[in-house]
Amino acid sequence: MADVSIVVVTYNALPWIERCLESVRDHETIIVDHGSTDGTLELVRRRFPQARLIEEGNTGLGAGSNTGMRVASGSYFLLLNSDAWAVGDAVEQLAAFAEAHPEAAVVGPKLLNPDGTLQRSVRGFPTMWRLATEYFFLRKLAPRTRALNAFYAARFPHDEVREAEFLMGACLLVRREAADTVGLFDEDFFMFSEETDWCYRFRAAGWKVWFCPDAEVVHVGGASHGGRLFRENLRSHLRFFAKHQGSRQAERARRLLLWSLRFRGLLFRGERGRDYRDAARWLASGRVPALLERRE
Q1: pLDDT at 225
Q2: Element (H or E) spanning 228, and its range?
Q3: Residue 219 gets which letter from DSSP?
Q4: Structure confidence at residue 152 (pLDDT)
Q5: pLDDT at 159 (0 to 100)
Q6: Are 134 and 128 in contact (CB under 8 A)?
Q7: 91, 78 Cβ separation under 8 angstroms
């Protein structure tokens, strides 16, 4: 069986980090902490003394994962969110699949919600049309059609082994050889879309991204992001377009997002509406290069 190194980035990771680390205890584990103050560090030192704990400033999820991967010794990296845990021998199943598919750069498991229901984890790369279907709520009109819901990979069978464009980053098995070929996460993506960019680069270099439903991982997730985190999500869209489709297309994406959020700001009341209006004002405050340079 191939060596798998577990990399977990933490930031105030209670109450799930213990279950997360317990599920992968038999593997080399690197925890990269970004300034936890809730007892995460104390728990890790007490319950998992065999794990390697690295403390650094919060430079983003991708950057933290890179820190862990740079010191890991395995042939594969398992990047695992601190609010996720492997079910049974999921790690071994992912590694076995990757060993049997040498073209695989990334293998992702079936994600489950804590209640056992499916958490749809397969995604499609951002395009202008796909952004429009998401941010103008067009996908709500026919959520099962690929034409209106390709962003969320509508009709993707989550009970079959399939190639994917990209997978949610809650749990990804990544081949070291592939990462050596295309590089690690782009650390300009502070939060959100770092896995989108990585899978895009893997596929462009001829590697494949696979969904493997026999391996299961529970992921709590599901929290809505307002304020700065929502803004970071928008920034990540713009960064992806600027990097892979050029500045003109990124500017078109900015305008599309701006008008969609103005529409949402009129549609919704309360805090949600305020978040949309605040995000629209941010998008209107400058062109893409300036928005990407700012770090609030």
Answers
A1: 37
A2: helix 227-245
A3: E
A4: 64
A5: 87
A6: no
A7: yes
Burial of 75: CB neighbours in 10 Å, binned 0-12, 13-18, 19+? middle
- Cβ distance 77 to 195 under 8 Å? no
CA proximity to 170, closest of 213, 108, 228, 223: 108
**The predicted structure's pLDDT at residue 223:** 39
pLDDT of residue 296: 55
Q: What are phi and psi of 227, to 5 degrees?
A: 55, -130
Q: Please give the Cα distance from 56 to 64 (Å, whole number).
A: 8
Residue 246 — φ and ψ, nearest 5°? 95, 165
- With a cut of 70, list the residues of the chain below it in pLDDT: 1, 142-155, 222-228, 294-296
d(CA 255, CA 259): 6
The span from the first CA to the last CA of the chain, in angstroms, equals 45
pTM of the model: 0.91
108 within 8 A of 168, measured Cβ to Cβ: yes
Residue 209's DSSP bridge partners are: 106
- As to burial, measured by CB atoms within 10 angstroms (0-12 exposed, 13-18 middle, 19+ buried), residue 204 is exposed
Helix, strand, coil % over all residues of the chain, rounded to 5: 45, 20, 35
Q: Which token pair is 175?
A: 């081949």
